[in-house]
């Protein structure tokens, strides 16, 4: 134990080290200062203040009652059948605000009451030891020993073994039920309804698109033909994978690797972001960029939809397109890559 | 000494003074900043490229107001040719483009920047139409939309909403409140935009916006979109305050500031001793 030595004398263990001198009047060790002096509140010494606090508390309770009335009025005054949006708004407001007053009024009133008018003497409650007495511990151990003895478990090993077996396999159902989280998606994350010969139709009208309809600077949102709510496929799953856009670039602007899948400057790409699967459809026709609204991943149409900004890691897969005899756009194959967010098995 | 000065050391004096100051500053700001006023009054002037008189008037206006950037024959200006700013060629952009750009105050350009903002139109409607007629006389282009496609009552808001969500909502937000693009560009709010400008914007694809020609979105579908926008602008908000219909950003802000702030205020009050 080191001790602060008054008067700046050197310490034995650290010869040569001057101990900082302690100013006069500072005790050797700090004492527990105890509770501060009790300070009476305004309401304790001033009758007017006490009366005022009483009124305030009652005011909050009255406000709460008013809130209750308001809630009930809001519920009954407006008939929801055939109500206009404005009436619904008023009904919702009265019920919500009324309930707020009801609960908040009681709460604030009670706290204000306790803080201003109820006794505020400081009290000290000493902690008691957490440990039980030796007698209690001995009693508990005896009860357990008696229990084991009376159950006869030591003399009947059959019961012990069967109980052990039952307990061991009891958690199995919890594991077996996890099977319902399957089956594994298999190939379904990589495949879409796009295939050779599938026409491109507009979302949501399902009209086929003529190559000549698409002018420079325009964007067409397309789905594979045959994908409707009534179709045999899981509509939303398939739509979420297959949604695509068609844009016309100047022929010279189409990237080298995108040329085989393009048609006279028309290029089609999956519009599902490769980061988190949002719809990448913010098309800036001046810069030929596609922007994802969720995390600002930006794809450059002139570079085969390469990621030029943001958290996405893979380019948007191209949809190879051509035209049929009637001039309508159709896919000449599946998407050039896996659409949508990356997943474990994608590697 | 003024009577009110006695209270200058009151504990509420400073917050009150701040409040008064902020209010005054806001009032002053709203008084001196000009507001873009949507020109919703029906225009009587028509842009007619076959009307020689109107085209001549439009050319005069063009030469004195637009040629600095767009060139004397609307062929587009180049900084290399001594123009201050290079404007694109206007040959073939059509009357609809002029009506949109000048009619919403985006042109003449106030300052170069990522994007021309909407502001107070700088020309009366007949002059806008005259310039539109001049530009339309140079080469064929999209005409100013006909009135029969502009009445929200003639469109189906339900169908319009579906088309809007597929084609427009990603930039302009599900309720037309607008949103951010890249590098300081943005999709403006579509609330309180005149139907004719909604229509001609789709037709011409101004600035970053793509073109939505009649082969992509038919005139009837454009009218449906106008009806949808009218519906979302005028409908009330039964679920409570709409908070600008901006989605989770404004809702989160209110939740964090008002909701959690209120809880903290309650906690502080609970822990404070009564005076």
Write the topology of this structure.
The complex is a heterodimer of chains A (347) and B (275).
Chain A (H helix, E strand, L loop, with lengths): L41 H4 L1 H31 L7 H32 L17 H18 L5 H13 L2 H5 L23 E3 L16 E6 L10 H8 L1 E5 L17 E5 L11 E3 L4 E3 L6 E3 L5 E4 L8 E2 L1 E3 L5 E3 L16
Antiparallel strand pairs in A: 1-2, 2-3, 3-4, 4-9, 5-6, 6-7, 7-8, 10-11
Chain B lengths: L12 H20 L19 H14 L1 H4 L23 H10 L21 H14 L18 H11 L1 H4 L6 E2 L5 E2 L7 H10 L14 H16 L13 H24 L4
Antiparallel strand pairs in B: 1-2
Helix pairs in contact in B: 2-5, 4-5, 4-8, 6-9
Observed structural traits:
heterodimer, A: 347 residues, alpha+beta, four-stranded antiparallel β-sheet, 7 helices, 32% helix, disordered N terminus, B: 275 residues, mainly alpha, two-stranded antiparallel sheet, 10 helices, 46% helix, 1% strand, globular
Describe this structure in words.
The complex is a heterodimer of chains A (347) and B (275). In chain A, 32% of the residues lie in helices and 12% in strands. Chain A has helices spanning 42-45, 47-77, 85-116, 134-151, 157-169, 172-176, 235-242, and strands at residues 200-202, 219-224, 244-248, 266-270, 282-284, 289-291, 298-300, 306-309, 318-319, 321-323, 329-331. In chain A, strands 1-2-3-4-9 form a 5-stranded antiparallel β-sheet. A 4-stranded antiparallel β-sheet of chain A has the order 5-6-7-8, with no helix packed on it. In chain A, strands 10-11 form a two-stranded antiparallel sheet. The radius of gyration of chain A is 39 Å and the shape is extended. Chain B is mostly helical and 275 residues long. Chain B has helices at 13-32, 52-65, 67-70, 94-103, 125-138, 157-167, 169-172, 195-204, 219-234, 248-271, and strands at 179-180, 186-187. In chain B, helix 6 packs across helix 9 (219-234). Chain A binds chain B through residues 41-43, 84-86, 88-89, 92-93, 96, 111, 115-116, 120, 202-205, 210, 213-221, 279, 281-287, 289, 291, 293, 296, 298, 309, and chain B through 162-163, 166-167, 170-171, 179, 181-182, 185, 187, 205, 207-213, 215-216, 221, 235-240, 269-270, 273-275.
